Every structure is written in structure tokens, then in C-alpha cells.
């Protein structure tokens, strides 16, 4: 199991990260210039990259690029690079010069991730518990009822009112200079039904 954490407040970040350190064989890794980190298994190798301009944390796997290739691609393509990544992942990409953090997941949302906007700041974690320990949220009774009734949640809601699930194929852009937070979807599922007769279907 892997856990990620981000908060602008160092103490919050430390609490969120260590709360996901469940076993002795878990290793904690932190970035140097931003309160961004990961709790990882020893077998996970390509999980962090840092240079003078960028810091990257990866939960999961990207198949078509290595982490050290992404900064160069970002300089060439800008934010569009995030839309062509392939794999199962949650990627946290920090542009140190512009002081902007991007949070990106794959189109299917195969790696869980949660966030909260608390006091105009962004909190990110793999576990709702890590965020809940910081913000002391209220229970969302409607969502709890839905989970009991249907055994699942059909939106970005969680059992806490102030914590949201990071939906598949989304990008969060967090400007740390202004505390401006933008969320957008870069992947839309499309279904185009074929105009085909019953006879043709039978032949297939």
C-alpha cells in the first residue's frame, strides 16, 4: 500500500504522512522544497523526482514516460502533457518557479486519492482519515445512507462533507501564490452506437 500527502502547513503535512505509515517496512520519502511526500513499499522504485525547477511524487505506474522525462515534456507541451500520460497513477507535479502544484490521475481513477479545500488551502491524501485528522469534518449523512443502501457512492462525495474523492481523468491546479484552486476533467468517455441490423448482429 502506498500513501501520499500534501499540505501547505508543515505540521499538517507531517501528521498526514505519518498517519499513513502503517507497517515497519513502509518508507517515508519527502520532497526538499515543498511539503509533499509518499509512504512507499521498498519495491517501489520510480516514485520521486526533483531538480532545481520541479518536484514530482508518483503513486502508481506511468507506462509511456519515466519521471525524469516529464519535466522536459512539460516545458515543451505545458499542461497538455498530463493528458497523454498512460498507466494507473496519481501524479503530484510541483512547478517551483511558478509555485503551482498539479494533481493528476489516470482516466479510470485506478489509484484512490482524496482532497479537501480547508481554509482556502488544498489538502491531498490517499486516505480520508489523514485529512479528517486535520480538519475534523462533519459526517455526510446522505452519503452514508447511499453507501448502506446501494453499497457504493456515485459521485465525488465521501462520508465526510468537507472531503471529496478525486474523480477519474481529472486535474487539480493549485496556485500557492493566490490559493486559487481549479479542477477540470481531461477525459470524457464517449459511446457511439453502431447503426447495425439484427441480422448483422446475429452474424457476429
Question: In words, what does this structure look like?
Answer:
The chain has 204 residues and is an alpha+beta fold. The protein has a single domain (3-203), classed as Glutamine Phosphoribosylpyrophosphate, subunit 1, domain 1, CATH 3.60.20.10. 20% of the residues lie in helices and 31% in strands. The chain is built from five helices and twelve strands. The strands form two sheets. Strands 2-3-1-9-8-10 form a six-stranded antiparallel sheet, covered by helices on one side. The protein has a six-stranded antiparallel sheet with strand order 4-5-6-7-11-12, with no helix packed on it. The termini are far apart. The mean pLDDT is 90.
Instruction: Briefly note the CATH topology name.
Output: Glutamine Phosphoribosylpyrophosphate, subunit 1, domain 1
CATH architecture: 4-Layer Sandwich
**C-alpha-based Rg, rounded:** 19 Å
Quickly count the helices.
5
Q: What's the SSE pattern?
A: EHEEEEHEEEEHHEEEH
Q: Specify the CATH homologous superfamily.
A: Aminohydrolase, N-terminal nucleophile (Ntn) domain
The strand order across the widest sheet is 2-3-1-9-8-10
Output the CATH class name.
Answer: Alpha Beta
- Poorly predicted sequence stretches spanning 5 or more consecutive residues: none
Question: Structural class of the secondary elements?
Answer: alpha+beta
Q: Tell me the total number of β-strands.
A: 12
Distance between the termini: 43 Å
What oligomeric state do the depicted chains represent?
Answer: single chain
What is the share of helical residues?
A: 10-25%
Tally of structural domains: 1
Indicate the overall shape: globular
Beta-strand share of residues:
25-35%
Amino acid at each position: 500500500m502506498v500513501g501520499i500527502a500534501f499540505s501547505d502547513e508543515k505540521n499538517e503535512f507531517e501528521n498526514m504522512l505519518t498517519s499513513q505509515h502503517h507497517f515497519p517496512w513502509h518508507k517515508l520519502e519527502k520532497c526538499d522544497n515543498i511539503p509533499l511526500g509518499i509512504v512507499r513499499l521498498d519495491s517501489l522504485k520510480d516514485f520521486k523526482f526533483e531538480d532545481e525547477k520541479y518536484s514530482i511524487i508518483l503513486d502508481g505506474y506511468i507506462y509511456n514516460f519515466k519521471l525524469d522525462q516529464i519535466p522536459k515534456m512539460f516545458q515543451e507541451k505545458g499542461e497538455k502533457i498530463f493528458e497523454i500520460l498512460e498507466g494507473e497513477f496519481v501524479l503530484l507535479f510541483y512547478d517551483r518557479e511558478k509555485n503551482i502544484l498539479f494533481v493528476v490521475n489516470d482516466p479510470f481513477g485506478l489509484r484512490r486519492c482524496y482532497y479537501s479545500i480547508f481554509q482556502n488551502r488544498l489538502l491531498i491524501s490517499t486516505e480520508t482519515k489523514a485529512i479528517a485528522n486535520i480538519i475534523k469534518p462533519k459526517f455526510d449523512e446522505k452519503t452514508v445512507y447511499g453507501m448502506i443502501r446501494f453499497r457504493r457512492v456515485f459521485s465525488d462525495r465521501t462520508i465526510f462533507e468537507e472531503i471529496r474523492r478525486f474523480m477519474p481523468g481529472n486535474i487539480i491546479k493549485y496556485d500557492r501564490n493566490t490559493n486559487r484552486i481549479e479542477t477540470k476533467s481531461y477525459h470524457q468517455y464517449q459511446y457511439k452506437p453502431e447503426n447495425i441490423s439484427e441480422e448483422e448482429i446475429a452474424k457476429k
